[in-house]
Amino acid sequence: MNSPTREAVPAVESGQPHVADAAGNARKSVWAQRWLLSPAVLSLLLWSVVPLLMTIYFSVTRYNLLSPDESGFVGLDNYRFLWSDPSFLPSIFNTLLLTGAVLLISVVGGVLLAVLFDQEFFGRGIARLLVIAPFFVMPTVSALIWKNMLLHPVYGLLAAAMHALGLQPIDWLGQYPMFSIIMIVSWQWLPFAFLILLTAIQSLDPEQKEAAQIDGAGPFSMFFYIVLPHLKRAIGVVVMIETIFLLSIFAEIYTTTAGGPGTATTTLSFLIYSMGLQQFDVGMASTGGILAVVLANIVSVFLVRMLASNLKGENEQ
Q: Which class is domain 77-316?
């Protein structure tokens, strides 16, 4: 009766070295993975964390390249001075206005274009290529095209069209600078939204459309109750990705209006450039950079929560 028990004990004891070897191999594997990841982690630290720490350091110091001998620790004085700067609050407003307007135009236009190009019509391939072409044009080049070929009050195409209609040409960049910047940036980012939304709308089950048509659903009912809910997740992705880039729009403003007239098109990114590379005030530019990071994180948290709530609602349904 006791012999099986005696035989089982050596079996268990003989298995312990194998368990220990497996645990040791697992630890070695983990350390090997960490060792292989270490170059990427070090590169990330050198590329992002170190510049961020330097920006934080310069934001609490007085450091102007025109008078480097007067540098020193000033605490939060740079933040107070920037807050009282007459260009700061308009730059925040212009940044949010530009971001919101471009998002609205690109999302609404992208949805409408996606619905249009989901239909069969002659020349759809060429038309699709023309729609997405602006997304591959460099920002500086697109800004120059709009400034000199479209919006110029003398030589632009819009001026020629208004002359042909007997109307007085408009200096768009001088009279409506922010509207012009919004049109330029929207022209660039509308194709991105169109591509994402067209891909999403083509993933819609055709049987669902056919069932709705059999039940007597018209085009508007199909759009609002089937297509648009299906695009909710894709719209959230478009809004999140575009917002990250739109908060740092610079090249279009620098090329066309240089932040003017006055502060009409001065965004936070252009204000940071002006302080750092025009006024050579590294301390104030670093302060603006820290505030830009804070603003971007606030907007990102809001967008992530909005997208998460949408996904949660879809999963519950």
A: mainly alpha
